[in-house]
Design a protein that fits this description.
This protein is α/β, with parallel strands linked by helices. Helices cover 36% and strands 27% of the residues. The chain has a 7-stranded mixed sheet with strand order 3-2-1-4-5-7-6. The longest helix has 18 residues. The radius of gyration is 16 Å and the shape is globular. The protein starts with a helix and ends with a strand. The protein binds S-adenosylmethionine. The site of S-adenosylmethionine has 23 residues, from helix 1 and strand 2.
Length: 211
């Protein structure tokens, strides 16, 4: 096993759990995840940190993909513990292993920052949504203040190597709009429990434009 694979298997899942499992982050998750309805697909389902926030009465099926084997295993263990029937597969958002129009809801939390090709992933999310289906998103990314963006640009090259390709300067709402979605923002703010360079958050829902 190379150093990168060892880091991804043993260190990165802990780094992600530290950043993603707090009660403060859960407060933000609560604003989007319980809105999921019908056939649900979660991109970057690793860790399973959204699972307890779904409303089981509103969900007919639950699927997800993640490329990190350790995080995927944690998601499976969490689903088993809570009795959530889930079809979790190893995979990447650039090539989602489900047919066109499979899902009523796509959930994407803190994952667009880490994917290899954000535009391609968003096109895939659009593809797997049914017409009228909704993308629920909660992401961190490019801050609205130039001074913060300068720091994001300085820190990003090191940060993304330590944090699983997590980018700091990616647009959120603008990128989703650019991929052919009509966006209904719910909120945006600097997260009080993070430095500003890591803490610009946007969350909301989006539908395929024209669908
Ligand atoms: C910061 S973690 C967030 C995990 C989870 N979505 C959450 O909200 O807690 C980023 C996740 O994206 C996954 N990921 C990285 N690249 C990906 C890709 N190309 N496609 C899908 N998921 C990816 C990682 O393995 C990891 O589970």
């Amino acid at each position: 096993m190379g150093v990168r694979s060892w880091y991804d298997a043993h260190v990165l899942p802990r780094v992600i759990a530290m950043g993603c499992s707090s009660d403060d982050v859960a407060q933000l998750r609560r604003e989007v995840v319980p809105l999921a309805r019908g056939a649900v697909f979660e991109l970057g389902c690793g860790g399973g940190f959204n699972q307890q926030l779904y409303d089981p009465a509103q969900i007919s099926s639950f699927a997800g993909i993640d490329p990190n084997a350790t995080l995927l295993e944690a998601a499976r263990a969490s689903a088993q513990a809570t009795g959530l029937a889930a079809d979790f597969r190893s995979g990447v958002g650039e090539n989602i292993p489900f047919a066109d129009g499979s899902f009523d809801t796509v959930v994407c939390t803190y994952t667009l920052c880490s994917v290899g090709d954000q535009a391609r992933v968003l096109a895939e999310l659009r593809r797997v949504l049914k017409p009228g289906g909704r993308l629920l998103y909660l992401e961190h990314g490019r801050a609205p203040d130039a001074g913060v963006v300068r720091w994001q640009g300085r820190i990003e090259p090191v940060w993304k190597r330590l944090a699983g390709n997590c980018h700091l300067t990616r647009e959120i709402g603008a990128a989703i709009r650019g991929a052919g979605f009509e966006v209904e923002p719910i909120g945006q703010e600097y997260f009080a429990k993070a430095p500003r360079w890591a803490g610009w958050m946007e969350w909301g829902m989006a539908r395929r434009a024209g669908a």
